[in-house]
């Protein structure tokens, strides 16, 4: 038995949800470039869950279902009020999503119908939880979700209490489309491993949030912004990148386990970053990012991944840095739940082996002789 570090190249499951073939990403066979330009996030949610694009009536029904389920139990809001004000936002989200299960009568109902209803509730409630957390820590009251609004519109509305600009809504919606699913990434794998024990969907999504939090995965978008802020100005990019590469340190938002010739989502976010920079009359983060990309690509051959330009996109939308990864979680909930439903449909316990590298034949030494 020989281990493959990080399971690189190991095919661990079959899935019909999303694919990465020759650097091309598809959701249910539809190229991400088409979806990014043409689909709304709700259409993508439907596509991931049901395997086809919705017709108008189906999409309208999904909007109604998401809207009707977007309020969170008051007990969970009361718990969030008890969280330390400076708590990590992904830790807060992980705890709050886990708490949702306590107030869901169907939490442990493993029927397909109940699991689909729970997927809808999770998708609808994550934005509400995150906006509530963001307001509560600022000493503000949470804002109830607005009936009939899309997930992107509702999230921005619940965050600020103001009707968001349609440009901001469209930009966030497109970012949600781009982050919705990504084959067997670490957080989706975590979700599938958890539910493959026939544990419940809340446990699966809670595991996934824990995995997404790390800076090698979803946490990189926040780390990219921290890096840009540390660099401070375009004049410092060159020395910063040179220093990082000399010290063999990671540059956040670059590299990918699967894409070696570039992440197809990055160009869309780059374009959005440029457009939003122009609209907000602040090209600083975009310009710094472009210079960094040019250097890292030239010197190290690494391309930006989905997290790189999303950092400047969210900053242009006025979103606090530590909500970037929770926003990723809002989007990826669609993919996580699609994978969880797929796992239940064709389940087998996921239990690989480890190559043992410890001592052998070790005698047991009685405690008085140690
Ligand atoms: C949504 C997402 O999860 S997208 C990924 C988000 N994560 C990041 O942006 C964090 C920065 N990037 C990374 O840490 C990595 O590229 C990962 C985690 C994405 C992929 O990791 P792996 O597939 O294990 O690649 P690995 O770490 O083996 O990298 C191969 C080589 O490239 C280097 N490398 C990879 N990424 C970077 C980076 N961002 N900056 C500098 N060097 C890098 C490694 O140091 C290694 O160099 P070496 O061969 O000289 O030792
Ligand atoms: O697939 C991965 O390893 C990480 C990634 O880009 C994602 O989850 O979107």
From TrEMBL:
Recorded catalytic activity of this chain's protein: oxaloacetate + acetyl-CoA + H2O = citrate + CoA + H(+)
Pathway recorded for this protein: Carbohydrate metabolism; tricarboxylic acid cycle
Key word Translocase present: no
GO molecular function, one term: citrate synthase activity
InterPro entries: 2-MeCitrate/Citrate_synth_II, Citrate_synth-like_lrg_a-sub, Citrate_synth-like_sm_a-sub, Citrate_synthase, Citrate_synthase_AS, Citrate_synthase_bac-typ, Citrate_synthase_sf
Keywords: Acyltransferase, Transferase, Tricarboxylic acid cycle
Family note: Belongs to the citrate synthase family.
Name this protein carries in UniProt: Citrate synthase
């Amino acid at each position: 038995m020989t281990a493959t570090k990080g399971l690189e190249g190991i095919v661990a499951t079959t899935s019909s949800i999303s694919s990465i073939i020759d650097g091309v990403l598809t959701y249910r066979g539809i190229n991400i470039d088409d979806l990014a330009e043409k689909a709304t996030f709700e259409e993508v949610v439907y596509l991931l869950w049901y395997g086809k694009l919705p017709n108008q009536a189906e999409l309208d029904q999904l909007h109604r279902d998401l809207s009707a389920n977007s309020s969170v139990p008051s007990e969970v809001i009361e718990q969030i009020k008890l969280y330390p004000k400076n708590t990590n936002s992904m830790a807060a989200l992980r705890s709050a999503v886990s708490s949702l299960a306590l107030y869901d009568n169907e939490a442990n109902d493993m029927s397909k119908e109940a699991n689909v209803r729970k997927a809808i509730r999770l998708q609808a409630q994550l934005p509400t939880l995150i906006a509530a957390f963001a307001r509560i820590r600022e000493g503000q009251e949470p804002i109830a979700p607005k009936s009939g609004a899309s997930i992107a519109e509702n999230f921005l509305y619940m965050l600020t209490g103001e009707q968001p600009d349609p440009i901001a809504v469209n930009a966030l919606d497109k970012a949600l489309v781009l982050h919705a699913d990504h084959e067997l990434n670490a957080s989706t794998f975590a979700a599938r491993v958890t539910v493959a024990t026939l544990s419940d969907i809340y446990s699966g999504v809670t595991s996934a949030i824990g995995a997404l939090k790390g800076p090698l995965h979803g946490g990189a978008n926040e780390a990219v912004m921290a890096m840009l802020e540390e660099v401070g100005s375009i004049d410092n990019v060159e020395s910063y990148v040179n220093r990082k590469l000399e010290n063999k340190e990671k540059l956040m938002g670059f590299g990918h386990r699967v894409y070696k010739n570039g992440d197809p989502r990055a160009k869309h976010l780059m374009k959005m970053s440029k457009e939003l920079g122009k609209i907000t009359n602040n090209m600083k983060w975009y310009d710094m990012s472009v210079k960094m990309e040019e250097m890292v690509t030239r010197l190290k051959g690494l391309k930006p991944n989905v997290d790189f330009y999303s950092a400047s996109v969210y900053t242009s939308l006025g979103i606090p840095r530590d909500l970037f990864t929770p926003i990723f979680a809002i989007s990826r909930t669609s993919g996580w739940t699609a994978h969880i439903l797929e796992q239940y449909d064709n389940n087998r316990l996921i239990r690989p082996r480890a190559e043992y590298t410890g001592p052998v034949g070790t005698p047991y030494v009685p405690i008085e002789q140690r």
